[in-house]
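hiii so um. not sure if this is the right channel but i have a protein structure encoded as tokens and i wanna go backwards to a sequence. like what aa goes where. can anyone help
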């Protein structure tokens, strides 16, 4: 099979791109430590229209919620703080830390037994038995996930659930 010079260059470029880009993207986002669908970026807390905000690399702003910060066991941020922000797949802030003080999250997988509506908690059947964890936000995180589904919860530093996903079972349909 004979390739023209253009075809050889195009093929070499394609192969190089496929080999290099995933490594660069992973290094740039810290993806090895993030849950599927999450993105991470660094920002500086600023004041805008009387509220504290962070700005994403694409220019979108997110207003900070002082209560969320406290639920994560942290002191409220102030203008000028350099922070690491983690967004979920819906562009909702699920975690934020001062740069250099990143937290260590834990993931727990189990069968969903119950999501408490009055008590904001989630109960899982894990390999270590039944476990109950407090929810930082209930709303969108648990909608559409029926009792009995295999899920993975992400816990923040104080052991509260900051994200819930159907567990990755290796099957394409889940």
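sure thing!! here u go:
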């Amino acid at each position: 099979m004979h390739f023209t010079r253009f075809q050889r260059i195009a093929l070499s470029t394609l192969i190089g791109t496929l080999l290099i880009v995933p490594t660069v993207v992973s290094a740039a986002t810290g993806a090895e430590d993030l849950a599927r669908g999450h993105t991470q970026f660094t920002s500086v807390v600023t004041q805008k229209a009387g509220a504290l905000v962070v700005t994403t690399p694409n220019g979108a702003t997110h207003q900070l919620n002082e209560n969320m910060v406290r639920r994560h066991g942290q002191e409220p941020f102030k203008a000028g703080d350099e922070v690491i922000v983690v967004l979920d797949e819906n562009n909702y802030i699920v975690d934020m830390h001062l740069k250099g003080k990143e937290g260590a999250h834990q993931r727990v997988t189990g069968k969903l037994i119950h999501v408490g509506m009055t008590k904001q908690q989630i109960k899982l059947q894990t390999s270590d038995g039944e476990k109950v964890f407090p929810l930082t936000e209930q709303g969108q995180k648990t909608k559409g996930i029926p009792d009995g589904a295999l899920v993975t919860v992400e816990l923040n530093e104080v052991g509260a659930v900051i994200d819930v996903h159907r567990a990755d079972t290796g099957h394409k349909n889940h």
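oh and The first helix runs from residue 5 to 29.
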